[in-house]
Every structure is written in C-alpha cells, then in structure tokens.
Design a protein that fits this description.
This protein has a single domain, classed as OB fold (Dihydrolipoamide Acetyltransferase, E2P) (Beta Barrel), CATH 2.40.50.140. Helix content is about 10%, strand content about 40%. The protein contains one helix and five strands. The protein has a five-stranded antiparallel sheet with strand order 3-2-1-4-5, covered by helices on one side. The longest helix has 11 residues. A hairpin with a 4-residue loop joins β2 and β3. By secondary structure, the chain is mostly beta strands. It is globular and about 40 Å long.
C-alpha cells in the first residue's frame, strides 16, 4: 500500500478528532504543492481530506501556498471537479 493509502486508511479509522467544518467545506492535510501551466501561473495542491479522499485543490492567484503536512480548509464548490483551498491553518 502506498504512503498516501496508509495515511488515508488511518484517517478513516479515527473518529471525532477533528472539529466540524463549516457547510460547504472540508478539512484536509496538504500533501504536495505544484505550479502548473506554461507560465507557472496556476498553483495546485494535493490534499488528503478528513474523509480519506485525496483531491487536487486549486489555489487562487496571490494565495500563499500551504506548507506540506499542514491542515487546510478546502471549499466544496458547485463544480465538484474544482475544489480550492480557502485557509492554511498553519499560519
């Protein structure tokens, strides 16, 4: 099993250790941050959600990239194919 798979399995087994997220948001842990595109204008982060899923979240321009292994709050927009990071709680 991969490292992310192990972390996801451990997270699924934990109960009640994280505070409830506001409606439309989910808690997660930043796994990696990359800049994409020809001009490196778009920043994305791989996030392990509290539910055990790993998603790619898009950071808005001008947002400071979260540190690896820091807790983040991820929005769940109307388009489920484009989650975005709202807050890096390590700041």
């Amino acid at each position: 099993m991969t490292e992310i798979g192990k972390l996801a399995a451990q997270r699924r087994q934990r109960k009640g250790t994280s505070p409830a997220a506001p409606d439309g948001f989910e808690w997660g842990t930043c796994q990696s941050v990359h800049e994409v595109g020809r001009s490196r204008a778009r920043t994305i982060a791989r996030v392990l959600l509290a539910s055990g899923f790993v998603v790619t979240a898009y950071l808005a321009p001008g947002v400071v990239a979260p540190a690896i292994d820091s807790p983040v709050l991820v929005s769940s927009p109307a388009d489920p194919n484009q989650p975005s990071i709202v807050a890096d709680l390590a700041e």
